[in-house]
Amino acid sequence: MERASDDPNRIRTLAVTAGDVVTALEARAQRDRPVVLRATPPFSGRMRARLHVAAEEYDETPAPLHVDPESLLAPTAPDYPRPADTEDALRADPDTEYTVDLHHDRHQEAVATWRERVRDHFRDTVTIETPDGPHEVAVSILG
Description:
Largest sheet: 4 strands, mixed
Number of domains: 2
Distance between the termini: 26 Å
């Protein structure tokens, strides 16, 4: 049985829920919040990373591991839909009259579609930053 350690280089697999990744991405896109996926020591071969709003400084030793949710996405992942883009598409449609309510509904539909589509673009591996430098680990998406 593998023992837990203060060394994040012991991690071989990072397990995250698809929902946590999507929520973190959305929080960053909508509110520019420092949302990360956090794994807390002691570290072992398979670690669970959970949704977390990062604070400025940590006094914890060893420090928790913070993973940028965007690092879990393949380059082919769709961009988060911006309200201005949804508005532009709606106004460009000659068969539709623009209204604020319709814009709101279309944008909500675009976000819901993005939430589903982005789940098909998670990476199988990710490079995490450790005190000893970059360390590549497998990614296990839960849910």
